[in-house]
Amino acid sequence: MSVLVSITGRNNDKLMAKLQEALPETKIEQWPNCENMEDIEFVLAWNAPDELWQQLPNLKVVQSYGAGVDGIPLAILPSSVKVTRIVDQQLSVDMAEYVLSHVLAYKLRHREYTSNQTERYWKPRRSVAGDSVGILGLGELGCRTASLLSRHGFSVRGWSRTLKDLSNVECYAGEAQFEQFLTGLDYVVCLLPLTSATQGILNAQLFSLVSSECLLINVARGQHLVEADLLNALDENELGAAVLDVFTTEPLPEAHPFWKHPKITVTPHVAAVTNLDTVVAQIAANARACFANQALQNRVMQDRGY
Questions:
Q1: Pick the CATH number of 89-266 from 3.90.230.10, 3.40.50.720, 1.10.10.10, 3.90.1150.200
Q2: What does the longest C-alpha to C-alpha distance in the chain come to?
């Protein structure tokens, strides 16, 4: 029994060392340097190559190295393989604070005054009108964010796949209530899991339903956004501004129009950064549970994709 790590796009040296420390009696290997694929029962993965999965005859568990599972090819995994994800309680706190800070910055015109300062231009204005915030996705992150915004006096709506019942949040669910949820919103925050149903959900149709001064905040996945639709909506004054922390290609290419657009704020995927020690503790616990045929933490409903 051994653990295989296949996480692309990052240096995993520190992660490998901490995993070995947490699982001293377990062999930890990193793809493609694996001696015996038949020994692998537990894989820690994110955007692993497709050819990996067919080489693991005794695979039992795939642990996503992330809060989502869009980096795991659920459709090609055998039904017998269980999938889990990372849940970091501090992430929800950090995410909610990130969203609140940008909502307040937009409402209080911080970006405008920063630009005015560079030009030594004095022009006091009232704060941006409107306080209705819509949260797309009412999982752990969405619920925490909705609660924080509500406590700060915003009128909060939430939309999810199935209807939720949250204090001080007007909840909507399903395709039938999507337009009603969006109509006239002053802020839209995307915290949805990335699935075939949610890819491209931030599009021209959505932008046409919200307020013309609406602020879009995307802290979920870059693939939720139709980039051309956003640029057009901003340029045509159909949308007020956008805060983007996630992108289809990361790092965001230097020539990308988002960098210099006057109505777009770019941050480098930092809305909520997972603590490595917390991650390793969860991975190690699930690896031990896998080897002992015990219940796993944070199982994913593979038919739903989250």
A1: 3.40.50.720
A2: 69
Q: Where are the domains of the chain?
A: 2-88+275-291, 89-266
Q: What is the mean pLDDT of each run of 10 residues along the chain (306 residues)?
A: 92 96 96 94 96 95 93 92 92 96 98 96 97 97 97 98 96 98 98 96 98 98 98 98 97 97 97 91 97 96 83
**What sections of 217-268 are H helices per DSSP?**
227-235
Instruction: Give the residue numbers marked as catalytic.
Output: 221, 269
Report the alpha-carbon angle 67-93-146, nearest 5.
Answer: 95
CA dist., res. 78 & res. 53, Å (int): 9
SS (HEC) of 226-276: CHHHHHHHHHCCCCCEEEECCCCCCCCCCCCCCCCCCCEEECCCCCCCCCH
Q: Which CATH number fits domain 2-88+275-291: 3.30.1300.20, 3.40.50.720, 3.10.150.10, 3.90.1150.10?
A: 3.40.50.720
